[in-house]
Amino acid sequence: MKNIDVCLTPDLLHHHNINNSIVVVTDIFRATSCMVTGFAYGVQSIIPVASVEECAEYQKRGYIAAAERNAEKVEGFDLDNSPFSFMDERLVGNKIAMTTTNGTLSITKSKKNAVKVIVGAFLNLQAVVNYLKAQPYDVLVLCAGWKGRPNLEDTLFAGAVVEALRDEYFVAEDAAILAMRAYEASRENMPLYLSNSSHIRRLQRLGINKDITYCLQKDLYDIVPILRGNELVLV
């Protein structure tokens, strides 16, 4: 039987053997929500990079560049980390280079050893679940967290994936059980459940309430971004 597990922060990734695993990277507020939205609105590909300097190099080569640190746009770049920025018509058919505080770092940490790396958000939850059901590999949901620490919103997404797959995968470890139980407790009203979470407070201080509401919507898009080489493309 295939296994499913959860890594609550990329700082714990070295404890997981992912040589036979599809890694599902999630950063609900807001990197993976941006990526899913961008593809839904016609972006051709997204190159996730760990550092601002790498992203700037792509920008010099003519790529549209999105850079975020501490939930705010980095000065000099084209896009911030709001999913609404990724709905812009001028992005259709274009390649984007992207760096964020947590999400793109998680992708770059995963790609060396994972069988595949895909991007998950509540926005494409069912599409991710359907894709995984058709695959022969184990699954690790990697929560991007916040600067090496776990966060609640990514943990809830991980729990939603575990809950959806628990009849077909062996749920072996406590992190997966914890995430699933948290999702089961929150599923009827996630905004209320998350209302005191650290990243919600961080975004609210920046006046980004509409992003919070948007990112917690389920199944708006039937797409799965997957890493091919150094680029995210659609499956």
UniProtKB/TrEMBL annotation:
Catalytic reaction(s) noted: (2R)-O-phospho-3-sulfolactate + H2O = (2R)-3-sulfolactate + phosphate
InterPro entries, sorted: ComB-like (IPR005238), ComB-like_sf (IPR036702)
Source species, domain of life: Bacteria
Entry annotated with the keyword RNA-binding: no
Cofactor: Mg(2+)
Keywords: Hydrolase, Magnesium
EC supergroup of this enzyme: hydrolase
EC number: 3.1.3.71
Molecular-function GO terms, alphabetical: 2-phosphosulfolactate phosphatase activity; magnesium ion binding; sulfopyruvate decarboxylase activity
Record SUPFAM superfamilies: ComB-like
Key word Hydrolase present: yes
Family: Belongs to the ComB family.
HAMAP family noted in UniProt: ComB
Protein name: Probable 2-phosphosulfolactate phosphatase
Gene name in the database record: comB
